[in-house]
Structures are given as structure tokens and as C-alpha cells.
Amino acid sequence: TTPELQQRKATVLESLRKQVLEKKELTGGYAFKFNGTDAMLDELTEFIKTERACCDFFTFNLSISGDKSEIWLEITGADGAKDFIKTELEL
Length: 91
Fold this sequence. Notes:
Layout: H1 2-19, E1 22-26, E2 29-34, H2 38-54, E3 58-64, E4 71-77, H3 81-87
Antiparallel strand pairs: 1-2, 2-4, 3-4
């Protein structure tokens, strides 16, 4: 719902936005680089679990370095997914 989306933008998504180190445009979405900490991994995993419940058109890929230096989150999907990431998720 709209109030739920607004609350989510104000908390979870805002936290992720602040922690993005790099952003790459992909054919069907985007890749986002984050610090490779366990706390960041936990936050990204929770984000993915929540997004899967409402946005089943997304495909998520996590690339996690073994030395904890970085995590890449790829969010892709069919036509329109890229625009949704940019406008609705504001990532």
C-alpha cells in the first residue's frame, strides 16, 4: 500500500541508498556495490526477502567477496523493471 511504501522508502530504502558505493547500469536493471560487512549482507538479505514478496518480477543476484571487501547486488527484470528500480525504489 502507499503508506507502507512511503514508510519503506523512509527507512530500509533510505538506508541502502546512503550505503551504495557504486552503481552500474545493466541491460535489464542495475548493479549496486556495498561494503562487504556481515551487517551489510544481513541488510541486503532482508531487503531481498521483502522485495520478493511484493515484486516477483525482479531477479536478485548477490556477489559477495570472501575477504569482506565488497558486495554487489544486481536487481534485474523484464521490461519496465529498470524504470521501476529508478523511480519507485529510487535506487
